[in-house]
């Protein structure tokens, strides 16, 4: 299992992680005819948080408080958002609920990733875009 603070964007990767779902979009984005619906969620482990994209039946299957195990996930851009998702080869499954230590910062989706000066085929963390999720701002 990888900690969320250690994930790096890539077109092909196999992220195995475990996290708690903190918040989820109430109304999924409208889809074009024939497309599966998708919705965004905020998830976290004890090291960081990230935006997690749910597809199709996943939108209804997961709720805030669920502990989720992701197998063979992908952390990459999708519609200009940097998101973690199961993708075609991955799998997200509920393994528990409510009890997990988590950290909401840093949010790995709110970091500007730049090419590594020593290896242009890899990305490294650049500037922090926002200290919290702009998609799921803190509630006061």
TrEMBL record:
One of its GO terms (biological process) is response to ionizing radiation. Keywords: DNA-binding. InterPro entries: NA-bd_OB-fold (IPR012340), SOSS-B (IPR051231). It comes from the Eukaryota. One of its GO terms (cellular component) is SOSS complex. SUPFAM superfamilies: Nucleic acid-binding proteins. GO terms for molecular function: DNA binding. This is OB domain-containing protein.
């Amino acid at each position: 299992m990888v900690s969320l603070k250690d994930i790096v964007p890539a077109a092909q990767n196999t992220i195995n992680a475990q996290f708690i779902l903190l918040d989820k979009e109430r109304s999924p984005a409208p889809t074009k005819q024939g497309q599966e619906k998708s919705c965004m969620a905020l998830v976290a482990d004890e090291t960081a948080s990230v935006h997690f994209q749910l597809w199709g039946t996943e939108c209804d299957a997961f709720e805030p408080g669920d502990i989720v195990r992701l197998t063979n996930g992908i952390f990459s851009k999708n519609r200009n958002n940097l998101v973690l998702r199961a993708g075609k080869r991955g799998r997200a499954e509920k393994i528990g609920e409510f009890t997990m230590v988590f950290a909401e910062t840093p949010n790995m989706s709110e970091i500007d990733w730049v090419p590594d000066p020593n290896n242009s085929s890899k990305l490294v963390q650049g500037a922090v875009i926002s200290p919290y999720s702009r998609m799921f701002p803190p509630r006061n």
